[in-house]
Amino acid sequence: MASDLKTRVREGWQQALRDILERSRSLGSQAVLAFDLDSTLFDNRPRQARILREFGLSVAHEKLRLCEPHHWDSGFDMRGAMRKCGLSEEEVEAHYEAARTFWLERFFTSDYCVDDATIQGAAAFTCAVVASGAHLVYVTGRHEGMRAGTEDCMRRHGLAQPDGERVHLLMKPNARDDDDAFKREAHARLGEWGTVVAAFDNEPTHANDYLRRFPGARVIHLATDHSGRPVTLLDGIVSVPHFSHDS
């Protein structure tokens, strides 16, 4: 699903991250950097694996009870994860609908998002942004009901903490709100804090929206995973595998 975009990562991608931090330092409090959370700063695979393990416990399926994060290497492909756990095609189809329902009841909650890990270098990069004097704005499709778990996970992993002054966390008011529409509305708020110099997102649709709205910004695509929608990234968007940029 997402492997095609991983091939966009080109040698020298680290320089784009270094350039962004340099521009942030030069603009200081006038700079604004926007970050998505899921599959951009956070790795959701531990959360996914926990849910499938718990589903396995609920139906007494030994193979699903042993699900690990690496079984979710194909993004949000639950059938693929079940196959990697060792289920046959017949077993996958027999359990999929119930597992999907079980997943939907848990994935978008504070109780489960606390299990997320971070993308390599993400914590240090967000702290470097704050140290530059810039505004850091988390723009996420998570809803307000996930705020407590999200902020707890940020604290545990050392990401820059929302403080209402330099670091801001914009979340959907309601779980049912459309992600694309919410993010486009959030773009209008970014200009309230200064000049948008960079935006980071794993979803091609959202990365493209940033570049169209802020043509002078450096837009970074995280080549982790995505929803699978057949969207081509616009020219000028740089794909990176993670945030570690020292080498």
Q: Which runs of at least 5 residues are low in confidence (pLDDT < 50)?
A: none
User: Number of helix segments?
Assistant: 10
How many strands appear in the DSSP assignment?
8
Helix-strand pattern: HHEEHHHHEHEHEHEHEE
Shape: globular
Major beta sheet, strand line-up: 5-4-1-6-7-8
**Quaternary organisation of the protein chains:** single chain
What do we call the CATH homologous superfamily of the largest domain? HAD superfamily/HAD-like
CATH topology of the largest domain: Rossmann fold
So, CATH architecture of the largest domain? 3-Layer(aba) Sandwich
Rg, Cα atoms, Å: 18 Å
Mean pLDDT: 94
Q: What portion of the residues fall into strands of 2 or more residues? A: 15-25%
- From the helix content, strand content and strand pairing, which structural class follows? alpha/beta
CATH top level assignment of the largest domain = Alpha Beta
Distance from N terminus to C terminus (CA atoms, Å) equals 29 Å
Compute the number of structural domains: 2
> What does the main sheet amount to?
6 strands, parallel
InterPro entries: HAD-like_sf (IPR036412), HAD_sf (IPR023214)
Organism: Melittangium boletus DSM 14713
Protein name: Haloacid dehalogenase-like hydrolase
